[in-house]
Amino acid sequence: MSWSHRLLFLLCCPLLQAAPLRFVGSDFPGIVQPGAPQPRGVAADMIRTLCQREQLVCSIQLLPWPRALAMLQHGQADVLIGPYRTAERAASMHFSRYPLYVDTLYWYRRAEQTVQWNGHFDSLAGLRLGVTRGWTLGQRFEDAKQRLQIDTADTLMQSMLKLQRQRLDLVASNDRNARHTLAQLGINNIVPIQPAISLQGGYMGYALHAIDKPALQRFEKAMANLAESGELARLNLSHGLVYPGKNTRWPDYLRQLP
Description:
By secondary structure, the protein is α/β, with parallel strands linked by helices. The protein contains 9 helices and 11 strands.
């Protein structure tokens, strides 16, 4: 059975008879990735830590992103790992109070190319823009995308190859995924442009059918404690990610995230 269909039980306590909290996600560098004997990344570390502390039975399943999202919406999973928050998604899931990680999103271009981008999506009219299926660039993009020329690919790698071959003018990605993908491809002439598209929190997305589960409520409370104590920042740092620390003024910080 391939990793994309493997169900991994992280903790199974014989004293507990409750069904496991079912976490689903996709292969995102630094966040959750397949590994042996168990997934790795900041999400996998956090889930293991909290489920052990709270004596919860938890499982992780890694799938292509659109399928993971569909499983949550159809009641086949309880928690989606790492979605950005948009109004459309808020109709089908609740989000954790604190993000699991924070991404900065950019447009990427060929190094020799000149593209005008001033932070307003209307400035991209007429350009061929690459995005990855199932991803979002934030609510401003969702509101503007009908006016833009969007090319949707199944993977970021496909979009980056189109950009290199001059079939696209710009490709959108967070810095974390872009660096990983360009390194895999051995491409060094594709660069981000300023200003950033947005700063996005990657949250835990809770299925509507599961929000009243005591186990999920305990998980959410424990995750908030992890963020406020600074421990979640340390977990992020161990995977090369930047996250607000213990002394963060959280109300102010959360207001700047979508």
